[in-house]
# Entry
Amino acid sequence: VVADEVRALAERTTRATREIGEMIKSIQTETRTAVSEMEAGVREVQQGTGEASRSGDAIRQILDQIEAVNMQVNQIATAAEEQTATTSEISGNMHQITDVVQQTSRGAQESSAAANRLSSLAAELQHVVSSFRIS
# Structure
């Protein structure tokens, strides 16, 4: 009877040992799978970190370019203001030139009228002088 009990106990122990061995193998397989998945996750995180870093660099470059464009826009605005001031000055000078030309034209007309009068007076004077005779 004791021998039967020992045999039964040995069989149960053997079965339990096999089950435990299978459980250990299953746990090892699942552990390897988990480790593999964790390593894949770590690679993805590293890849994401690299992409985030590249995105940050790209954003910094974009900001630098925006700043450069902003400076150029300010320079263009300043140049436009200077051109507007120059154009206003040229316009004022043109008005002054127009005034001077008009004054010169009036002066020329007055001079022409005076020359015509002098010519008429000279003709009259010559007519009067020609009537005198010197003996």
The two ends are 198 Å apart (CA to CA).
